[in-house]
Each structure stands twice: as structure tokens, then as C-alpha cells.
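Severity: low
Component: inverse-folding endpoint
Summary: output formatting inconsistent between runs
Steps to reproduce: submit the following C-alpha cells with default settings.
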């Protein structure tokens, strides 16, 4: 017993000396002691497999082309510096890291979508890979996972079709489309928002008031003048008008224009036909179905913030069923701003 206590004390003193006197060399050039790297990598793999979500939690649309395209564009901006893209090598700086970030084509080989979701959301200790900046936004993470899963069979030509040349496309139009008229079902249209609404949204992303792993990455490169310029470039001077079709018996129209005891009429604030004196809220009519449905679920689940009526929006969304959300998304997305102005 005495011997065990002495060995324990000796170990504690030795450990304190290694830490306190800097005896352990933390240089990235030196790497770990023999065997430590293998132990850590095995720990990483087993940790991912233990904690990854169940297969049933993988979205049915994880292979959707729009998800893959959106994930590819974000990856190009935030991840390709370390992991490269199909058809291009890793940078010299990435190759100097210890441990080296694997080339994306190798990194995805052994993982299913549910595993990659956990890795992207949580990051990996002692590798330089961070967790997702807005951990609550699973919808954004699944788009990145959709791209990573597609990489397994992707050619350099496929990659170029998604992101342009080897440096990738830049600017808002890469995701939001020319003139802000996005054709990606997971990306909002900017051309139906006012300049003030765009500036407000970008400002909320910048301060973290409205979390988004994708948009927070973008606005981190913008100052107030840039934000104002983008509002003027993409936003309308005033909200476009939309004419409601009379006599529709669609459930989405009924809910959005009349509301219920728990859910106020959406059109009172968002339009079309916004009531005079109501607090202004961004236009919904003409946005894509997937985008509207995703935002409503974020509000309902307490993962969306921002705006002058955030409390009312959160309370209203909590009363929505999955069927309500689908009906609202169907109806609002069916209203074409361009054809009804």
C-alpha cells in the first residue's frame, strides 16, 4: 500500500514537472510520442460511432441536388482551405499541420451521413477542426453533409460545376443567384425583400442575434458599409405587391389569411395585403417551399431569433403542427412575385 502511494505521488510530481517546467514539447513539428496518435485516432472513431444520431434522423432529402449545391458553396468558403476539393491538392499550410487534415476524398470514405453530421456539428479536439458556429442549425449542417456524401463519387468536373473554377465563385450571387433571385430551394430570395430588411438580417447575423453557421461566416468579412451596399444592391426600395387569388380553398391560404385562436393571420404582418399599422415583417410570398418550411420549424423549435416581433413569431410557431407548416409553405411558395406585380 505504501509503495502504491509512493508511486502515485511520484507520478503526480512528475506530471506537474512536465507541465510546470514545459518539459513536454508542444511543437507541431514533433508530433506525439509513439503510439499516442493511433490511440487518439481510434478514440475519435469510436467516439463518433457512439454519439452519431440514429439512421432514422437522417433527412430524406439528404441527397437533394439543392442541398448538395448549398453545402458545396459553404464548404468551399469555410473548409476547403484545409481539406481541399476533388481534383485539387491540399495547401502547403494544411500539409504542415499536425495532424494533417485529410484530403476531403479520403476524409469521407469511412463515414455514413449520420457520422459526418456529428463530426461537422461537434468538431474534433486537438485537430484544429472547429464545431459548427451555430450548433442549433441542423438544417445547415445537413446541407454540408449532403455535399460530403456526394464527394464519394464526385469528379473534378462535378466539383467545378458546383463551385466554379478551383478558387470557387465568390459573392452573394453564388448562393442567392443573379439579382438575388435564388433558384435553390434552401436559399432565400433577396429580390423580394426591401433594402432595410436585408440590412437588418445581415446586422443580426453579424452580432449573433440571428445564428447561422453559413451566414455568420459570410458576414464576418463585412463591415457596416459593406452591409449597407448589399442592402442597396439586392433589396427593393419598397415591398413588391402580390395579388391574392379570390376563392381559394387551400388550407395554407385559410390559415395564413384568417389564422386560428392560437396562430394570428400570417398575412397581417408578412403580406400579401399587410394590414395598415401592423409591424413590418419580411415578405414570404414567392420564397421557396423548403426555405419557408425550414424557417417555420426553426421558430417552432426555439432556434430562430431576431426581428421586432420575435416573441409573437415564436409563440405562434409553437402552435403549428407539421401539417400546418407544410400547408403554409405550399401556399406562400405558390405566390409568384414576378407574375403578380
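Observed output (run 2 of 3):
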Amino acid at each position: 500500500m505504501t509503495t502504491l502511494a509512493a508511486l502515485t505521488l511520484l507520478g503526480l510530481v512528475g506530471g506537474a514537472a512536465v507541465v510546470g517546467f514545459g518539459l513536454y514539447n508542444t511543437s507541431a513539428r514533433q508530433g506525439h510520442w509513439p503510439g499516442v496518435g493511433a490511440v487518439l485516432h481510434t478514440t475519435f472513431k469510436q467516439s463518433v460511432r457512439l454519439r452519431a444520431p440514429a439512421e432514422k434522423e437522417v433527412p430524406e432529402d439528404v441527397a437533394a441536388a439543392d442541398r448538395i449545391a448549398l453545402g458545396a458553396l459553404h464548404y468551399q468558403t469555410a473548409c476547403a482551405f484545409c481539406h481541399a476539393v476533388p481534383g485539387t491538392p491540399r495547401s502547403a499550410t494544411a500539409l504542415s499541420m499536425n495532424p494533417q487534415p485529410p484530403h476531403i476524398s479520403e476524409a469521407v470514405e469511412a463515414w455514413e451521413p449520420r457520422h459526418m453530421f456529428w463530426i461537422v456539428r461537434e468538431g474534433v479536439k486537438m485537430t484544429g477542426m472547429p464545431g459548427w458556429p451555430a450548433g442549433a442549425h441542423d438544417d445547415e449542417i445537413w446541407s454540408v453533409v449532403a455535399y460530403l456524401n456526394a464527394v464519394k463519387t464526385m469528379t473534378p468536373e462535378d466539383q467545378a460545376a458546383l463551385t466554379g473554377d478551383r478558387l470557387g465563385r465568390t459573392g452573394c450571387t453564388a448562393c442567392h443567384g443573379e439579382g438575388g433571385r435564388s433558384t435553390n430551394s434552401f436559399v432565400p430570395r433577396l429580390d423580394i425583400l426591401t433594402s432595410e430588411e436585408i440590412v437588418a438580417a445581415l446586422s443580426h447575423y453579424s452580432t449573433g442575434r440571428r445564428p447561422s453557421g453559413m451566414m455568420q461566416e459570410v458576414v464576418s468579412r463585412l463591415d457596416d458599409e459593406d452591409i449597407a451596399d448589399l442592402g442597396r444592391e439586392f433589396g427593393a426600395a419598397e415591398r413588391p405587391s402580390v395579388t391574392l387569388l379570390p376563392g381559394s380553398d387551400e388550407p395554407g391560404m385559410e390559415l395564413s389569411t384568417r389564422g386560428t385562436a392560437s396562430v394570428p393571420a400570417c398575412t397581417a404582418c408578412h403580406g400579401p395585403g399587410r394590414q395598415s399599422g401592423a409591424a413590418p415583417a419580411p415578405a414570404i410570398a414567392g420564397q421557396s417551399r423548403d426555405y419557408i418550411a425550414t424557417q417555420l420549424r426553426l421558430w417552432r423549435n426555439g432556434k430562430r431569433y431576431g426581428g421586432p416581433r420575435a416573441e409573437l413569431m415564436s409563440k405562434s410557431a409553437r402552435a403549428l403542427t407539421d401539417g400546418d407548416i407544410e400547408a403554409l409553405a405550399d401556399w406562400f411558395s405558390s405566390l409568384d412575385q414576378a407574375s403578380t406585380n
